[in-house]
Specification:
Length: 102
Amino acid sequence: MHRIPPAQVGRARSLRKEMPPAEVALWDVLRGRGLGVRFRRQVPLGIYIVDFYCPEWELVIEVDGWTHEAGTDAERDAFVRGEGFVVLLVSNDDVMRNVDGV
């Protein structure tokens, strides 16, 4: 794992306080070992901050909405996959329409 820049830690804390509705809805399902494993939210990985992270499954879940940018997202996903994690991309619409299916 790479050293996390101190600015990323503060940014992640800020993002936890300002989660969009789709991320809040998914977090309500994932929190408290809702799926039998622990998830963390807004986690710094290297220079990136991922929406949800499960260390036990080596899984990262990204909820893509209007704040995401295709080029940056592709770089982030490549970095995260390079670190050995599986990346699951879901849309805001999918979460809001069918959070249990997601």
